[in-house]
Structures are given as C-alpha cells and as structure tokens.
C-alpha cells in the first residue's frame, strides 16, 4: 500500500496570516550553520532523526547538551500536558504563521491532520478566514497577542478564563513560548523543511489507508476463534508525514512477548502487556531514549494478515497493517 498524501499548493501567494506584527526580515534559504552528518550522530540522536524532524535535530546536535534538554522539555509538553492535542496543534500552526516559520508549519501540518484537524480548517487558518469555537478562538487570540506585544489583552484573558482553568492557561502560555522560541532559532539558523512537506500556508491532503485485505469474521459457533500471532511480521505504519516500515516479532511462550524494530531509525524495543483475545492482538511498546514514548497497538489477525491502530501517547492514533513473513 502506497503512502496516500500530496501537497496542495494554493499558488505562490503569501498566506493572509503570515508574519503580522513583525518587520518582515527575509528568511534564509539554506542553513547558516552546516547540519551534522547523520553518520556523526549518536545512536540515540539517529533514532530520533529517523522518525521525523531530522533537520532540526542535525542542527541541534552541534550542542548535544541543549538538544537533550530541548527534547525532554518538548516531550513533556507533548505527552504530559492537559491541553488537548487538537488545541495544541492549532496553537503551533498559528505560531508558525505569525512568525513566518516554514519549518514549524511543515512539520505540524501532518501532526494537525493526525489529531483530526481537517484540511479545510488548516486552509482557513492560513487564510485568516473561518470561525472557531469560543475556546479555540481564545487560544488563537492569545497567540496573536503574544506575537504582537508579549502580553495577553484583557479581552483575551476573559475569554481564556471562561473556558480554561489556571493551570491550563499557564500551560498554554508555556506552549506558545516554547514554539515561539523554536521559530526564532529555526528561522535564524535557516533550518529547511524535509522534502515533501507543505510550504508555509499550504495544506496537505491525507486519507488514512484502508487495509488492502478485508478481515474475515472472527467468530465460530458464537465464540471467537483464537488467532495464531507467532512469527515475524512486516508492518507498515501510516502517518501523514511518512509511511514507516517495521518488523514485528511475536513469541507465544507463556504469554505474548517479542520485539518491534524500525530499521531506518535504528530502534528496537521489546513488546509488553501482550494479550490475545480471539483474533484481536494487543501489546505495548515503550521507547525510552532519548525520551519516553508509549505506543499501544491494537490489531486483528486473519491468517497471515494483521491490521489495526497504533495509539501514540500525546500524539494521536494511526493505522497499520502488514503480513507474516516468517514462522516461529
């Protein structure tokens, strides 16, 4: 199954929402400091670079201490926050527009699509049109206030206070500050977006793939037939930014165990909390370096075909499918 995404360019016109309140400094069109070659990255750095946003990591790798702190803080905001994923991604896209940060926009349009923000909503955001629920309007206004004059207006504060509690408002302010900081160093260092990502103000169409093989009924005489998950599986994990190919090894010996490998990223992690119920297979993988990411996998097996959904904590849910390529 091929990756189903393509950029939708709306011409070369500058989006209506870009760069308001700033002096219009021209952004560099190439890195001002050379990126670190992938071969020179540490094992942990290569792992992170292999799963996305590689150019910013290859830039920050010149200061590994700052890169580690940046990753840890960003991971905490992503996985440990109370603000919804949808609100967070809208906020980031608004910051990208207000700061004319193409890299931030390019990497978060896929993220926005993955949490349910529609292509039409992304277009409205870029053009400064459309209407938003009151809670989201308050957050977008907060971004505008901070980008324009470093302080929330009384009108914006009242809107925020009507919807969010004190802790959530603090989190929103920190989120905006973090991504404004990112925009500043991304723009100034001239970090360019990876190939195939949308340009500033442009959208990307994405439709979650439908498994190429329909799963048969999982019941026999009213009771689920037990799947036989043991073996080596070749999986495809479908994310709006890119399809990733994985190798899953399942061992049934006193329970379900095994490992999951992303060869491109150089990551192999054990699977845990494995369960089999009828044709349903569930397990968890946890990446611990350089920060912790938990993924819950829930799939259905029919013969040598496996399909389901992987839920990444703080990020969203994505389809996967694949076939068994070896027996255990």
UniProtKB/TrEMBL annotation:
It comes from the Bacteria. Residues 1-30 are annotated as: Disordered. One of its GO terms (molecular function) is peroxiredoxin activity. It holds the Pfam family CMD. Residues 1-11 have a biased composition (Basic and acidic residues). Residues 65-128 form the Carboxymuconolactone decarboxylase-like domain. This is Carboxymuconolactone decarboxylase family protein. It comes from Ktedonospora formicarum.
């Amino acid at each position: 199954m091929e990756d189903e995404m393509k950029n939708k360019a709306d011409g070369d016109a500058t989006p209506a929402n870009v760069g308001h309140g700033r002096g219009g400094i021209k952004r560099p069109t190439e890195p001002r400091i050379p990126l670190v070659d992938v071969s020179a990255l540490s094992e942990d750095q290569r792992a992170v670079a292999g799963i996305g946003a590689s150019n910013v990591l290859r830039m920050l790798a010149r200061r590994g201490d700052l890169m580690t702190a940046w990753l840890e803080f960003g991971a905490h905001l992503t996985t440990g926050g109370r603000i919804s994923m949808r609100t967070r991604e809208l906020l980031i896209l608004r910051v990208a527009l207000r700061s004319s940060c193409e890299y931030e926009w390019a990497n978060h349009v896929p993220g926005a699509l993955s949490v349910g923000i529609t292509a039409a909503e992304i277009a409205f955001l870029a053009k400064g049109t459309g209407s938003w629920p009151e809670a989201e309007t308050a957050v977008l206004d907060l971004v505008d206030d901070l980008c324009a004059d470093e302080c929330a207006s009384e009108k914006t504060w009242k809107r925020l206070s009507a919807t969010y509690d004190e802790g959530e408002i603090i989190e929103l302010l920190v989120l905006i500050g973090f991504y404004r900081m990112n925009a500043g160093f991304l723009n100034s260092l001239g970090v360019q977006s990876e190939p195939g990502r949308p340009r500033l103000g442009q959208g990307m169409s994405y439709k979650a793939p439908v498994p190429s093989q329909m799963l048969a009924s999982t019941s026999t005489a009213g009771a689920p037939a037990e799947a036989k998950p043991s073996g080596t599986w070749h999986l495809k994990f479908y994310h709006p930014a890119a399809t990733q190919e994985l190798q899953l090894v399942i061992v049934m010996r006193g329970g379900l165990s095994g490992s999951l490998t992303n060869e491109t990223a150089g990551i192999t992690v054990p699977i845990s909390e494995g369960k089999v119920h009828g044709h349903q297979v569930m397990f968890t993988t946890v990446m611990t370096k350089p920060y912790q990411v938990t993924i819950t996998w829930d799939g259905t097996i029919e013969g040598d075909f496996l399909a389901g959904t992987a839920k990444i904590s703080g990020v969203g849910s994505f389809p996967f499918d694949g076939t068994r390529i070896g027996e255990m």
